[in-house]
Amino acid sequence: MKPLDILRQYFGYESFRPPQEAVIQRVLGGQHALVIMPTGGGKSLCYQIPALMSPEPDVTTSGKTPLTLVLSPLIALMKDQVDALRSRGISATFINSSLSRQDREKRYAAVSRGEYQLLYVTPERFRKPEFTSAIAQRTVRLLAVDEAHCISEWGHDFRPDYTRLTEFRRLIGEPTTIALTATATPDVQRDIVRQLGLEPTQIKTFHSGIDRPNLELTVDEVWGDDEKLARIIAINKSYPATSGSGIVYFTLIRTLERFSERLRAEHIPHVSYHGDLERNERRWIQNEFMQGRCPLVLATPAFGMGIDKNDIRYVIHAEIPGSMEAWYQEIGRAGRDGKPSNCVLLYEESDLLTQMEFLRWSNPDAEFYQRVYDLLVHNREQVDAFGLEWMREKLHAKQKHDHRLETVLGMLERYGVIEGTWEPMRLTVMNDLAPELCNQDRLNAKLKRDQQKLLALVQFIRHEGDKKDYIQNYFGIADCAS
Fold first, then answer.
1. Mean pLDDT, rounded, for 106-118
2. What is the pLDDT of residue 155?
């Protein structure tokens, strides 16, 4: 079968979007690719279709079908992605920490036997000997690195284990590799190639651009909650409930809840989504929105991963995001059906103070990392007994809204220093504090980069020329090969 036959048979599309077919042909030819394509642009097909191209059994692995290995940091999405593939008759599975130990062992055994054409894992899975043992029984024909900006320290969602991609590729026989992302500046693109262990001449960049003509980008300067509320209500009322859905993004949960109360007072139906809700409640809210039963959702950035809804007519940012990358990824959820959709950023200068505070929380200094590590090592009983609140009290007393502790625990987990759960607190210290987290010069450099990203967004807001031209220049699209 040809790629177009597979597209039609399994996915129900009649033709490819540019540059999908060119990417697929390059990968099928055993050549590496970096794909930068807007959210909803069809990146996944660029590796899913090659995975289904009638692979010949490999004699070196007892006739087992070659495997496409997909690395993704998004545990929350893997089940949905795999369920969608399996519903199309495609042999796919995932292995991650959401599974019980028994279920993981069953899937390791199935992988070893030669089952599955596609396997989704997080990069952290390579720390597990049982995984590397299972994967050694297969020929990995294609390695797909999703959310590839996580490879780069210059990216907006850096994952330390992604920096081991050169090691991972060597471990699985240096297969053909495709890296995919929706957002990557020129610096990030170069870093992705370097972290993959490839020379620039070995990989071709396919950039489909970021211009989506059906999206209208608007920046409205506002003063105070009253003006913000009035704009949200006006935009919401301009779209009848039967015409599609809308998302209003907030940075802070307390701001979201304040606006939710005011919208309820105006009898505007909506749901609210944020990370402090219980998992079942979050899933219920997401289903209400996805099924169209409640077409308006107020949300923090925790909402959006896996939201593949065609008829989102507007995305409003009621508070300024932290970077161009974050903003662009979030507005990418609008207008996936190709119909006109609005992306409105409500800019209030005082909101910059919130983002500057976020920068402080997300960039603890080396001393703070050391203090958290010492608490975990030397006060194990108290940490287990009293949890996060006790740790906060020891670290920053009465500063209730200081979130540096959560940042540090997250980074310690990403670097493999700790394992376990935070709530209830059941953490085990596995390794010494990572050198990268003790290097103040390195931490200072990261803070400076984050500040520059926020500055770039402010410059975009104040840019008097064509907003889309500014975005094209920021992401270096003119410099990309096609």
1. 96
2. 53
